[in-house]
Amino acid sequence: MSSIFLLLLALLLSFQSSSSVSVGSRSILRVVNNKNNGDQHDFAVDLNATNFDAVLRDTPATYAIVEFFAHWCPACRNYKSQYEKVARLFNGADAAHPGIILMTRVDCALKINNILCDKFSVSHYPMLFWGHPSKFVSGEWEPKQEKSEIRVIDDGRTADRLLNWINKQMSSSYGLDDERYENEHLQLNMSDPGQIVRAVYDVEEATSTAFDIILEHKMIKTETRASLIKFLQLLVVHHPSRSCRKGSAEILVNFDDLSPSDMWSANKEESVTGNGNGAMGNFQICGKDVPRGYWMFCRGSKNDTRGFSCGLWVLLHSLSVRIEDGESHLAFTAICDFIHDFFICEECRQHFYEMCSSVSGPFNKTRDFALWLWSAHNKVNDRLMKVEASLGTGDPKFPKIIWPPKQLCPSCYLAGSSRIDWDHDEVFKFLANYYGKMLASLYKDKGLLGDGGTNRSLVEDLAASTNAVVVPLGAALAIAVASCAFGALACFWRSQQKNRKYLYQLHSLKNI
C-alpha cells in the first residue's frame, strides 16, 4: 500500500511540474504583484524560454532589462531585493513610470532556459542586459561582438547604482522614492496627436478588462448571450489589435462549448462563468503575454480618473471608423446592445442606451455612424463637465472638453461663428485618421504589418480563425458571414489547437 501511495504522489508531483510550464504566461504575468510565493514586492517579470520572445515582442515599454540569474546563487538571492526596488518604479499597476522599462528575470538554473541563457553567453550570476525589447526577440549576445544593440549593465550592484546607470542612458532623473503620479510630466494628448499611437495598448487593456468584468459578475445570461456574440463578431473583423482579433475569434469559435445555450441552469452557469475561473475564464481575449495594469494614452493624473472608460471609448471610436458602409447599422446595434447588457455603471449605461434609442433610422454609411458616436461622446463630456465641476471629481490635467480641440483639428471648426460650428466632413476625416491609421501605426513601426496591412506571420497566426481578420469582408455580409464561417472553421481550429497543445506538452516533458 505504501509503495502505491508513493507512486501516486510521484505522479501528482510530476503532473504539477509539467502543468506549471504549460499554464498560460499571461495568467502568471498579468498581475506581477501576486507571485506564487505571495511576495507583494515582486515586480520584475519572470520569463522563460516559452514566453521570452512573446513578452518582449509585445510589451509597450521602450526599453527592457533582462536579469539572468540562478535561484541557487546566494549573490542572486541577495541582489533580488535591490533589483525589485528599481523594478517597482517601472512594472505593475502602481508603477511610478509605467511603459518605459520592462524589467524581467530569467532563471538559468532551470533546464528549460539552458539554450536561452547560452544564446546570451551568460558567464556569471547575476548578469544584466539592456536594450530595446524587440532586439531581445530571437536575439543573442556575444562578449566579443563589436556592435550590438543589446548592452551589458556593468554597474548595477545596488538599486542606487542600477538606477544611476539607467538615468545616464536616458538622461532622466528617476529616484527610488518616486511614487505613482508624483514628478510625472504627462504629455497631454489634446496637444500631441502622436500620443494616440500608444492607445493601442489601452484598447487591448480595456477589451480584456471588459471581459474580466463580464465573467466576474456572471453577466452572460440567456438574454445577453446574443449581444455578446454580435460584439465578438465585430471585434474579430475590426478590432485595431491583431492579438484581440485572434483572441476574439478563438472565443467565438469555442463559444458553444464555453457558454452553451442551455446555461440558464444555475449549476451550469456557475461552472461556465463563475469568477472567471470556469472554461471561459481560461481564454484571454487579447492573448497578451505582457504584464498589464497600467494605462499609456489613457493614464490620468490621479488614481481614479480616466483608465478603463477612456480605453473603451477609444475602442468604440476605432471600430466606428474601420467598418464598411454596409456594416454601419449592424455595428451600431452591436455596440449599443453590448453597452446596455454589459457596462456595469448603471447611470452611464442608461444614458448611452437612451442616445441609441433616439436614433430614428438605420445608418447606411460609415461616416454617419462615426459622426453619431463622436456626437454622443461630446454629449457625455458636456454632461460630465458640469457634474465634475460641481463635485470636484474631474481630472485637473485632463478636464472634460468638447472634442476634438482646435489644437488637434483646426479645420474641423467653421470660421466666423461665436459658437462651435463643425465642418462634419473634416471631423470625419480627422476621426478616420486619428482612430484608424494613426492608432494602428504602432504595429507598422514594430514591423508587425507590411505595406498591405498584414504580413505572412500574421496570416499564419489567424488562418485558423477567419480570413475576415486579414481581408475585411465587404458590406453587410461582414458580420453575418463571419458567424457562419466560424462553424465551418471550428473543427479545423480545434484540431490545430489540440496538435499544438500535444506538441507543446511533449516539448515540456522533455525539458523536465
Automatic annotation (TrEMBL):
Keywords of this entry: Disulfide bond, FAD, Flavoprotein, Glycoprotein, Membrane, Oxidoreductase, Redox-active center, Secreted, Signal, Transmembrane, Transmembrane helix
Cofactors: FAD
Localization: Secreted
Enzyme class name: oxidoreductase
Span of the signal peptide: 1-20
One Pfam family per UniProt: Thioredoxin
TM spans (from-to): 469-493
Swiss-Prot/TrEMBL catalytic activity: 2 R'C(R)SH + O2 = R'C(R)S-S(R)CR' + H2O2
Chief location of this protein within or outside the cell: secreted
Residues of the ERV/ALR sulfhydryl oxidase domain: 301-403
Domain Thioredoxin: 21-171
GO terms of biological process kind: protein folding
GO cellular component: extracellular space; Golgi membrane
Molecular functions (GO terms): flavin-dependent sulfhydryl oxidase activity; protein disulfide isomerase activity
EC number: 1.8.3.2
Protein name: Sulfhydryl oxidase
Organism: Nyssa sinensis
